[in-house]
Design a protein that fits this description.
By secondary structure, the protein is an alpha/beta fold. The chain is built from six helices and ten strands, in the order βββαβαβαββββαβαα.
Length: about 220
């Protein structure tokens, strides 16, 4: 049995799950108007370990949502994950936040476009096909009435900016899935386990969150 602790703090949802061989067995999360990550994250981790009747030393890896998303949220999640991995001597796994959002969608047709609010009409987005394979890379984009105008497939929009998206994305092939507003650690389980099996690990000392916007503003 392989146990992986999943941490998702890229948005307002402070979320922690425990997975066994890629299946979520426990999840604790809360999404508030403000960010409660600093107060809730360690409590959720302790609660999950206690309720699972495991010892923290039974963990085989820690996975963290790497972004894009909230600068503060990502810093808290990544710092916590790195600290656990360093202390326990176990691998660190990073998971694309937008892939986590896409993984929660149950529809099996069209495109899945997860979006995370980046203020005003800007969003962080990516495009996934019906098999959850990424077909358009993560980007920061400003939404207009012409966004995705050349797409005829059904487009499922998920994420925390659906309300503002609906003001410009008005074509009938846009479907807004309100139940998938925030990425959740319970949707990370299969993704992190796949990386665990592939030994796709991060360097605990040097890994940093994927902020995207900072990268785009400061190209090298």
């Amino acid at each position: 049995m392989n146990y992986i602790l999943n941490i998702e703090t890229a948005t307002k949802n402070c979320s922690v799950s425990l997975a066994r061989n890629g299946e979520t067995i426990l999840c604790k999360e809360i999404a508030e108007e403000g960010y409660s990550h600093a107060e809730k994250l360690h409590v959720f981790i302790e609660d999950i370990i206690k309720e699972s009747r495991l010892n923290v030393k039974d963990l085989h890896a820690v996975a963290v949502s790497k972004g894009p998303g909230s600068y503060t949220g990502l810093r808290i999640g990544v710092s916590t994950a790195k600290g656990l991995c360093y202390a326990l001597g176990i691998p660190l796994i990073s998971v694309d936040t937008l892939a986590v959002l896409a993984a929660a969608v149950t529809q099996n047709d069209g495109w899945i476009v997860p979006m995370i609010d980046a203020r005003r009409m800007e969003v962080y987005s990516a495009v996934f096909d019906q098999n959850r394979e990424k077909i358009k890379a993560v980007q920061a984009e400003i939404l207009t009435e012409d966004s995705y105008s050349d797409v005829v497939e059904t487009i499922y929009i998920v994420g925390d900016c659906q309300e503002k998206c609906q003001t410009v994305l008005t074509k009938p092939n846009f479907v807004f899935l309100a139940e998938h507003k925030f990425p959740s650690a319970k949707s990370m389980s299969a993704l992190s386990f796949a990386k665990f099996e592939q030994k796709d690990f991060e360097d605990v000392a040097y890994f940093e969150p994927f902020y995207l916007k900072d990268f785009m503003l400061n190209p090298k």
